[in-house]
Amino acid sequence: QVQVAESGGGLVQAGESLRLSCAVSGQTSRSTITGWFRHAPGKSREWIASISLGGGDTRYADSAKGRFTISVDDAKNTVYLQMNNLKAEDTAVFYCAARSVYSRVYDYWGQGTLVTVSS
């Protein structure tokens, strides 16, 4: 089993930055893929970016390129999402999830952390 726990959400002003953290524990390996998703009100859940716990295989959604950066501290098994120049439309519940490198399905999800961007 794998456990995933997000933290770092909150209320920020438009234009500010925020860094989310995702602690991944349990039966993981350096090839375990961890992804960030968001679910905004009235919209479908959206994949933002993903990375392996070993730091490779970094990928971004087109909508995330330029303002969002995913990274990992492999010593802590913690994945970060740095979000810059936040906009009101970034308001959402952000989720972290993990999957095996051999699977396309994210099997392990956190509870989510709310990010509210005030304009």
Outline of the structure:
0% of the residues lie in helices and 53% in strands. It is an all-beta fold and 119 residues long.
How would you describe the overall organization of this protein?
With 119 residues, this protein is mainly beta. The protein contains no helices and eleven strands. It has strands at 2-7, 10-13, 18-26, 33-39, 46-52, 59-60, 68-73, 78-83, 92-99, 108-109, 113-118. Strands 2, 4, 5, 6, 9, 10 and 11 form a seven-stranded mixed sheet that branches. The protein is globular, with a radius of gyration of 13 Å. The N and C termini lie far apart (40 Å). The model has no long low-confidence stretch (mean pLDDT 96).
Number of helices: 0
The biggest beta sheet, please? 7 strands, mixed
What series of H and E elements makes up the topology? EEEEEEEEEEE
Please tally the β strands and state the result: 11
β-strand percent reads: over 45%
Gyration radius, rounded = 13 Å
Helix content: under 10%
How would the blueprint of this fold be written?
Blueprint: E1 2-7, E2 10-13, E3 18-26, E4 33-39, E5 46-52, E6 59-60, E7 68-73, E8 78-83, E9 92-99, E10 108-109, E11 113-118
Keywords:
single chain, 119 residues, mainly beta, seven-stranded mixed beta sheet, four-stranded antiparallel beta sheet, globular
